[in-house]
């Protein structure tokens, strides 16, 4: 196996092997762009190292061979005393993990070669600056020395010299600093800073491998659902220097605005600086546009390259570059992260530019992004007290109590508080706090700062670089212009779409995307919102592509109408139990308590017209579209008063010697119906079988409602769904009775109703015997909530709060199986049952209702296994439509 690839050997499609950075460095090299020469050690080598604790045997020789080739090409040897070749050792996994992995620059410098570098460059200050950076980075990331020790020493040097920025330190100061840094290394790491350049390089490579399993890297992977076994590649790249004086510098840029998608010049540039300086907020950067004044030639070349990259990758790219004495070098590119809104806009812009087609456009957006765009925003007409404005780094409207450190953010959010994490700037240590917070506010850094990049990745609201805010993390407060002080715990509101920061709680309003789906805002109008326009077009692409139909879970006409506006093609789940609550509770109580058949029939008779009316309204709202009605599902005790409360009432009445016959009867019934595990008790079809007349009444109400709609020239398409069936016999009995009732109603009204009768598949036994069950069912609707509970043996209400976090932390599952369908277990049952059912009855209609129907990943699964539709809550419908379209393209 080959473990090392020269940049000229790879390409952008080799991300698995070369990591994102390596693959794209190779791609740029082969595009003829100015990339400093180098090579990439593969993820395979990393995997061998992580598995066995040792680098593969062949690796050392391969690295040596590539290093010699690089040395020949550059005409100097690594760390050569009079003219050293310097390299960076850079991590780069398949997925970018901002700030997670460690990069060491200036490898090859030593006490000797620093002199050579000074002579070669004719700049002593530069050489010593590079050397101190090496010791600092190497000490921190390779030898594990606390980074703050170096930073404090650097601060001290500046203070001693009475200067504020590092560029004001001179060669002599830096020499002293190097000595100090070496001492720090010696005391903290218990060894000298290695003077042998090859040893430096090898140790750095190993450190990159090791950093794959650093805590922060692991946390980030869990968050982003990146598999833990991919490993990272390592890039060895010859150094170019942005710290060689004012005609040098380093910068980052996007080929278009990652917040709006607009084309233009977006980036930050910093003169006389190296590497991370731009994003670390060490000195204030200038907007990229100013580079045109500073160095027109490099600027023009950069613009040219950015265009080349966009046309080549057919997407927004972000880049890192360095200018060394007027010569431009490309150090990194990748398809850039973007806000949800920008993703939609960019996808349609690229279609218009002819760069991508509709199917590809669908791959450029996600249901999660659409969901994000449907979040409410701040009410612009509200009375607000704006106290600052930063960069709109990641959209959303976040309100919460200001906290100034990650620890407090986590602690407070655990106790149910909403918090905004306020920092001067964030670094990887803040990740926990960023996850816990509603939003993130920083006073330093641009669109490419750590806070901005990570927040966008997490879809979390972020305002960064709000410079007029004075953040004092030590004293846990921030001072806003005018002098007002925001203390820890004070409520603030931040708008990640405008960058505005407000004191207090600002009210929120619905998003324009929701207004659009609701039909209150239109695409195509002159003043149409750009975002709405893009969403409209993408939804049309998705609807054209998708095979899965999307239905709604809705229990009343109002929800049904909204679902229809959102694009629902029917109702997949109408829960009749919701119709038994409120005023009707008393009737239901009487039904449950009935001692005689006559009493029972009496209350059923009273319920019938009420149920019927519900269905008439529902069929009218969904005229022409299927409406699946689930017969009563939950255990009866849910309709009775709480046992403790009732006991108290009875006891009180007794002690006061007041009449309490009814309460007593009720209490007896509650006791009779009390179950240890109601979820596994008397519910669903079991109720229908033991309470005579209950399901009959419901079926009659459905049939009569359908007949009434027909008589009114409507087009009702009712489907009767029997819940919690475990065996075909249950279904057969209920079905026989239902068929009889429907025939009766048809006879009485003289209409053919064509009601379909089907079942939920939500018990493992039902799934396992799906072939038999299909004999008696015209459709299956997979109830994946209950199926997940019963397959895993989890009671949802109990487990989510108790041990799920532990399970997620331990990586037992990457995401709750109630959120995304467990493909291997629950999913297997769905797949097999669908197949068996269709073998019995080829035209069996298959759907899914329950939470998973609106979950992006699960929608893809349901598409794969050939279901006909998914059903989800009205608000998730656009997401399901989009994902169904993506799954099919
Ligand atoms: P990250 O993945 O954190 O961005 P990088 O490997 O890209 O880490 O490197 C960190 C910084 O060092 C970046 O700003 C990058 O541009 C810079 N850098 C990396 N390699 C070189 C090099 N060979 N010459 C100059 N600067 C470099
Ligand atoms: Mg980088
Ligand atoms: Mg169920």
UniProtKB/TrEMBL annotation:
Keyword annotations of the record: ATP-binding, Kinase, Magnesium, Metal-binding, Nucleotide-binding, Pyruvate, Transferase
Residue ranges of domain PEP-utilising enzyme C-terminal in the record: 533-885
Taxonomy of the source species: Bacteria, Bacillati, Actinomycetota, Actinomycetes, Kitasatosporales
Presence of keyword Nucleotidyltransferase: no
Keyword NAD recorded: no
Necessary cofactors: Mg(2+)
Cited InterPro entries: ATP_grasp_subdomain_1, PEP-util_enz_mobile_dom, PEP_util_AS, PEP_util_C, Phosphohistidine_dom_sf, PPDK_AMP/ATP-bd, Pyruvate_phosphate_dikinase, Pyrv/PenolPyrv_kinase-like_dom
Catalytic function, reaction form: pyruvate + phosphate + ATP = phosphoenolpyruvate + AMP + diphosphate + H(+)
Domain Pyruvate phosphate dikinase AMP/ATP-binding, first and last residues per copy: 59-284, 291-341
Name the UniProt record assigns to this protein: Pyruvate, phosphate dikinase
UniProt GO MF annotations: pyruvate, phosphate dikinase activity
Gene that this sequence comes from: ppdK
Similarity field: Belongs to the PEP-utilizing enzyme family.
PROSITE patterns listed in its UniProt record: PEP_ENZYMES_PHOS_SITE
Annotated PEP-utilising enzyme mobile domain residues: 417-499
EC id: 2.7.9.1
PANTHER family registered for this protein in UniProt: PHOSPHOENOLPYRUVATE DIKINASE-RELATED, PYRUVATE, PHOSPHATE DIKINASE 1, CHLOROPLASTIC
